[in-house]
Write a structure and sequence with these properties.
Blueprint lengths: L2 H25 L4 H13 L13 H24 L4 H7 L3 H12 L6 H21 L5 H24 L4 H10 L2 H12 L1 H9 L3 H28 L2 H4 L6 H13 L5 H18 L40
Helix pairs in contact: 1-4, 1-11, 1-13, 2-3, 2-8, 2-9, 2-11, 3-7, 3-8, 4-13, 5-7, 6-14, 8-11
């Protein structure tokens, strides 16, 4: 990935990391399925009536809308509402990088280089260390729902890569229109109409701000940029950058919600950053600078030595 696109991937990770704190605030004002429906409604309405359809088969719009919008976010919001802390949720959800690599290998026949696999393993080890440090303080069922949410995110990454939308804005607007009605139906079924009425009756600037951030910031900007990157690079190259999300998520939770970061947690975040750095290197870059103990260059530094014309290089004498 180019430096500019690496910077974009890191910015998306920062927006998504802070997003978990905002979700925590939003869930204090809205029930989870209604909050999810509002998130996507802000993106889709009224833009869907003015933005043309993306130039992809409509089945991909529906598939990603259901896997990402309904399954991934519906499960995540439900789990956080059931007691999963925002920092731990931002951490566990990044297991999606492994699911993305698995689905990409199975469905797209992608074969990531060994260097990228090693970087992914280091970063994921950092997530494991941080999970041990945090401990599973939330309900086990909610923890499992976040893992399942991560699997759906990994699947949606691969589906987006397969769809290869050329226009990220059209793609995000139309994709966001898909989950609104299913999430509203789930809200009516499991939360009841009275919960929605109470939420709107007690509407506050904090609740409105949460909806706008998760809708326009995290969803529209974040997934537009993410879809753009997935359209240009292998899914297994883009997905590891989401492993930076818990670094920003844990930091913002510490700053804004008072969740502490221990030395072990800081070390885990360092592992994540190191792993991301390894995946960002061009395959073979490390081997290109190896030098033999004799001082002779190897790999890309080895070049054929050509004779150089000069005083010591006399032209052959003419015969006859």
């Amino acid at each position: 990935m180019s430096p500019r696109h690496i910077a974009l991937a890191v910015l998306v990770a920062a927006v998504w990391g802070v997003n978990f704190v905002v979700i925590h605030v939003g869930l204090g004002h809205f029930p989870p399925f209604l909050f999810g429906a509002l998130r996507f409604a802000v993106v889709a309405v009224p833009a869907v009536f003015f933005v043309g359809r993306p130039r992809v088969a409509f089945r991909w719009v529906v598939a990603v809308g259901l896997t990402l919008g309904v399954a991934k976010f519906g499960l995540l919001f439900f789990a956080m509402n059931a007691g999963m802390p925002s920092g731990l949720s931002s951490l566990v959800l990044q297991s999606q990088a492994v699911f993305t690599a698995v689905f990409a290998a199975a469905l797209l026949r992608e074969r990531p280089p060994v260097q990228r696999i090693a970087g992914l393993a280091i970063a994921f080890a950092g997530i494991g260390v941080a999970a041990v440090d945090r401990g599973l303080n939330g309900p086990v069922g909610a923890f499992a729902l976040v893992i399942l949410s991560a699997a759906f995110w990994g699947l949606s990454n691969v589906l987006t890569k397969k769809a290869a939308p050329a226009d990220a804005l059209r793609w995000m607007v139309w994709m966001s229109a898909v989950p609104v009605l299913p999430l509203l139906a789930l809200s009516l079924l499991f939360e009841g109409p009275s919960a929605a009425g109470e939420a709107f009756a007690a509407l506050s600037p904090a609740g409105i701000g949460a909806v706008l951030y998760v809708g326009l910031g995290s969803t529209l900007f974040g997934f537009m940029a993410w879809s753009f990157l997935l359209g240009r690079y292998d899914a297994s190259a883009v997905a590891p950058y989401s492993l930076l999300v818990p670094v920003f998520g844990m930091s913002s939770s510490w700053l804004l919600l008072g969740e502490g970061i221990s030395p072990l947690g800081a070390g885990a975040a360092l592992l994540v950053v190191l792993g991301i750095g390894l995946t960002a290197l061009r395959p073979g870059a490390l081997g290109s600078v190896r030098v033999l103990s004799s001082g002779r260059p190897t790999g890309l530094l080895r070049r054929r030595v050509r004779p150089v014309a000069g005083p010591a290089a006399e032209p052959p004498a003419r015969l006859g």
